[in-house]
Fold:
Amino acid sequence: MAVSRLLDGYVYIDVSGRDLGSYVQEAAQVVRDRVKLPPGYSISWSGQLEAMQRVRDRLMEVVPLTLGLIFALLYLNTKSAARTALVMLAVPFSCVGAFWFLWALGYNMSVGVWVGLIALMGVDAETGMFMLLYIDLSVKEWQRQGWLRSKADLREAIVHGAVKRIRPKFMTVATMFIGLVPILVSTGAGSDVMKRIAAPMVGGIFTSFLLELIVYPPLYEIWLGRQETAAQLEAIEDTAAAGRMKTLSGVDAGR
Structure:
C-alpha cells in the first residue's frame, strides 16, 4: 500500500517586544489576505503558539477553580457570604497594581505571569482576612465596653481596628519585597521565568496594602450599618406587634 507524504517547509520567526499570540493573529490575517496558496498547499502555525494555547485552555479551568476554592475556604471560616465577598475584594485591589507593574516592566501575559497572579490571590485572601479579623475584634470590644452608641462610635471603632492592622500589614508587604525584589534584578539561568512570577506579586501586594487600608473600613461600615439598621427595624416591629397583642388581650378581657 503506497503512503503519500507531504513536503514540509518551515519559516522560523523570532518575536520580541510584543505578545506572541497577538502577533500570530495579526500575521495570520495578513497571510490570508495577501498570499494565494496553490491547490494542495496549506499553512499552519506551530511552535510556542501551540504550547501557549494549551496553557491558556488549562488556565481557563484552573483560575476559576482557584477562586472558587478560596471563596469556599473563606466561607467555611466566616460563615457569612457578605464577609467572604468583602475579603475577596482584595483580589481586584491587587490586580490593579499587578497589571500596572507588568505594563511598566513591559511584560506580556505568560504562564509565569499567571502563576504569579494565582499565588497573589492566596496572599490577598490571607491579608484581607486579617484586616476583617482586626476590625471585628475592635467592634466587638467597643460593644462589650458599651461604647457603641451612634454611627460615629461605630466609625471610630472600625478605624481603630484598621489602624491596628497597619504594622502587621506593613511587615507582610516588607517581607514580600525583601524576598521578591532580588528575583526581579537577577540575571542567572531561569531568571526570565522567575521575574514574571515575582512581578505581579510585587505590584499587587503594594496596591492591596493601600486599598485594603483605605477601602475596607468604609465598606465594612456600610455593611455593618445596614445590618444594625435591619436589626433595629426588626426590634421595632417586634415591639409594635407585642403592643398590638397586649391591646387585643385587654379588649378581649373587657368583653
